[in-house]
Sequence to fold (182 residues):
Amino acid sequence: MKALLIVDVQNDFCPGGTLAVPEGDKVVPVINGIMDLFPLVIASKDWHPKDTVHFKKWPPHCVQDTKGADFHPKLDTSKLKKVFLKGTRNKDDGYSAFESTSANLAEFLKKEQVDELYVAGLATDYCVKATALDADKLGFETFVVEDAVAAVNAKPGDGEKALKAMARAGVTLISSNEISKD
Fold:
C-alpha cells in the first residue's frame, strides 16, 4: 500500500510565521490536490517545548499549543488518519518524522502495510530531507513530491542540494501529476 506523509505544514513555517519558508503556503493546494490518490494520509508536526535547545539554532517556532504550531488553515486535515509529533523534548531537534515521540512512525507504517511512502511538506532542506532519508534507510520505497515541497534555503541552493542528496541516496523525485491512484 502507498501512503502520503505531510511534513510540518504549520503556520510558523508559512508566510507570516516565525520561521517562514519562502512561499511555504504554495505547497498546500498541491498537497490537498493529491490526498485522494492515497488510501492512507498522515502528517507530522513540529511540537517544541518553549525552552528547547533547538531554539539556540533557530528562532522559536511551532511551540506546543500555540497558533504557530497549528496546521496551515487551508490544509485539508479531514483526511489525516494520524499526526506524529516531533521535537517534543527539550534536547530534541526532531527533524525527521521518524523521530516522533507521540507514536513510532515506522511501526505504524509497517502495521498499515505501507511499502511506498510519498513525502510532501516543509522544509525540503531540513525535515523533508531527514524524513525521506530515514524512510529510505528503513526500507520503504520513498518518493518526494517535488512540487509539494519548499525549502528554507538558509544558504542559496540548499533546497536543490537536498533534492540531489535524496536522489543520490535512492529517493525518487516525482511530480504530483505523475502519481497514479492505484
In short: The mean pLDDT is 96. The CA atoms of residues 135 and 142 lie 6 Å apart. The beta strands are 2-7, 40-46, 82-86, 116-122, 141-150, 172-174. The helical segments are 27-34, 105-111, 124-137, 158-169.
